[in-house]
Design goal:
Two copies of one chain form a homodimer.
Chain A: H1 7-30, H2 37-43, H3 58-82, H4 89-106, H5 108-115, H6 126-132, H7 134-149, H8 163-174, H9 182-203, H10 215-228
Helix pairs in contact in A: 1-2, 3-4, 3-5, 3-6, 3-7, 4-7, 4-10, 9-10
The structure holds a DNA duplex (30 and 30 nucleotides).
DNA sequence: CAATTATGTGAGCACTGCTCTTGCCAAAAT
DNA sequence: ATTTTGGCAAGAGCAGTGCTCACATAATTG
């Protein structure tokens, strides 16, 4: 799109990137709480006040990091999805789950930044909501594939959502997966919250008394949730190999 | 147990309580990040350094608040459990869920303190693990009731956990619910993570694009998870009325 | 070239967690 | 009853923070 025009713009873009990189480095070491604008500036060899030409305040820097983290995780999920044949629905489901967990474990502080407690009084300018939706969209993508292939065991016995929940789900469906039945989408939301609840528990140390290390529990949950949402077993299609 | 002996001990206990109360007040307003020892001291009419006689540092104060929060939430869950007749298994399940959510919504910053990102490098001295287990123990209590009554539809068709997960579940079972089958306990852990994942998403603003407000979604999830873990429907027993 | 605008500088404010010395006064020991 | 001990509050002080502002300097635009 807009090619970088002047020298200044070029320098500005580069410095902005370097600031974020250094901030990310500090974030990865000590966590968001210990991220200090002064330390970032120091490391970059500039005076702290200069940094305010690039980010109006600390929260704005953090918001930028949040958006980047959402996008990094979203990309991870999307490529995991793409790396499995679209005939192997359950395999895709599995690999997306595993990729998300792997990223979270590799970047615990960035994970905490986006799925932990919100930093200020209230978060989420519109900037964050689109990147944040990438992972759930991938999960729904798996469901759509399965639905299109006719392998999704959509629940005829499943209890229907209440009327207001149905309306919410309906609104969600039109923008995301119009063909999927409401019950399926409602279960998808449940599964989505389960995934990140499980990850947060693992990373935040809540599982220490019970299922820690949680590798096997995670694998178990993958299959249970795949069943729960109606995905076919491995043999359906040609998944096994 | 040990009655408070000297006048000093008495004063110390009281001041410790007052410090925690004031800290909790500030926590509730602005969140853990904004909790300042100096502000607490100021509000209590003492000099900031005096506060270090009672808590070695900020983290120790926060840990005390964490323990208190776990206990407050645990108590809430336990009394919700006790308030429903033990014949109405699903009713208990429901009310425990609702009570936990109500507390979380009423004390969002305390919730974030215990279920959000951990504050320092690593959290959780042993002090926190026992209070933290009170809510999951209540949920397991419901399952045990149902099992004892013979109404729990324990999954014969449910996939068995892997061997190492089985071992972990086994160890968990012996200390908590020896009679429950491993599959049930494994699902209980899934459900537990789902509950708090759902609450975190609601409180941290992750549901805004989809099912917000989430009252109906929460109610839906209650029933879905009750089914998932094998609880009987309302009519089993004499629940309806 | 001149005027404007974007960027870097350094001092400074108000705040934080935390430490240390000083003096006080209640509690235990003599 | 008097001395010693030890818990406690006070206040100064250190190093660090986010952020603002007046000022100088460089790049862009008219």
């Amino acid at each position: 799109m807009s090619a970088i025009r002047t020298v200044r713009d070029r320098a500005r873009a580069e410095l902005t990137r370097e600031i974020k990189n250094e901030a990310r480095r500090q974030l990865a070491i000590e966590g968001a709480n210990a991220l200090s604008l002064r330390a970032v500036a120091r490391e970059l060899g500039m005076v702290s006040s200069a940094l305010y030409r690039y980010f109006r305040n600390r929260d704005e820097l953090l918001t930028a990091l949040i958006v980047d983290a959402y996008n990094a995780l979203g990309e991870i999920a999307e490529s995991a999805f793409a790396a499995v044949a679209d005939t192997d629905v359950r395999g895709r489901w599995r690999e997306v789950y595993r990729a998300v967990r792997a990223w979270a474990r590799r970047h615990p502080h960035e994970y905490a930044l986006i799925y932990g407690s919100p930093i200020p009084g209230y978060r989420a300018p519109q900037d964050t909501v689109t990147p944040a939706s990438r992972v759930p969209l991938v999960l729904i993508g798996v469901l759509r594939d399965s639905w299109a292939a006719g392998t999704l065991r959509a629940g005829s016995g499943w209890p229907p959502p209440s009327t207001t929940l149905s309306a919410q789900i309906e609104r969600l469906a039109t923008s995301v997966a119009p063909e999927l039945p409401g019950q399926v989408l409602a279960r998808a939301v449940i599964v989505w919250t389960q995934l990140f609840g499980m990850l947060s528990f693992e990373l935040f140390g809540q599982l220490v008394g019970s299922v820690d290390p949680s590798d096997d529990f995670f694998e178990h949950a993958i299959e249970q949730m795949a069943d729960f949402v109606g995905l076919p077993a491995d043999d359906a299609g040609d998944a096994g190999r």
